[in-house]
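Re: the request from the purification team.
They wanted to know what the chain is likely to look like in 3D before they choose a buffer screen. I agreed to run a prediction and write the result into the notebook, where they can find it.
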Amino acid sequence: MTGGAPEGARSDGPDISVVIPAYNEKDYIAATVRCALEHIPARYAREVIVVDHGSQDDTVRIAREAGADVLEYPDAPTISALRNAGVARSRGRILVFLDADTTLTPAWTEAAPAVLDGLDTEPMQLTGARRRVPEGMNVLAKYWFAPKADEVAPTHIGGGHIVTTRRLFDAVGGFPAGMETGEDYRFCLDAKAAGARLHAVPALGAVHNGLPRTLRQFFDREAWHGRGDWTNLHTVLTTKVALATLIFLGLHLLLVAGLVGVFAWPAAAPWPAWAAGAAVLGIVGLCLASSFLKFHGRGPVHVLFNTAVYFIYYVARSVAFFSALTRRRIIKHERA
């Protein structure tokens, strides 16, 4: 299929359907498809569906050669639409959502039977896990990304590695097709609202091979992902990161006003200086509090390092805010 929405799912078919959205993923897609086919336990019949967003490289050919069923959908408006199209094409009662740079491991094979059998017993579950850091990554990956892979009660499970049932997917109505990004967070909120139990299983080993390797890549990634926080007023009011970003922006406005006051209205001293000082303390406090809440179990080094990372994070999320206001698309498709 090219351009339009796919036909509905067939009633017969495998136990498990793996759905992978992709755009220009020639460096990753073969390993992702092959590992999915290899590490899903043999007792389960499975299929791998790659939904391509109009790749300009060899993604489609490589995915097919690796054993995937490829659905070409270049006109999909969002990554949500890609995932929903993959589910519509699929046949399994259990759905595994992977990003194109995510590889399952032998640990997945060992942990999967208990998880998958649990989904058959309790279909209204949303599970999976945060992805692990590949070997040889930098200090950013070690201190920011790696600890998240061990979370068992995260606020949400990223779209790069979600395991759930078709029953839950249908009850939720799929991923929100109108969201440019952040759709996985909304999907998890909608699942919980529908009565689903959300829990991560870190033993389901999956590796995130496309992690940012520089601070610039990290910044660009968060600037992209943050756009979903500003889809509408509801997403802003129900997203903690969006509310924290508004506080971050407000503190910077106070800082600028204080600094302007110090130089433009010296007669008003010391109030402008106090305002600027309070803003600086507030910014540092917000970043420190965010880091402490997320990483305190890892010790003070993680907390202090990630306090600095959170500053970059909130700057990137602020850029996402202004980008969303102008509705300026950054790129066509981005991995989680």
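For the purification team: Residues 300-326 form the longest helix (27 residues).
Please add any questions underneath this entry.
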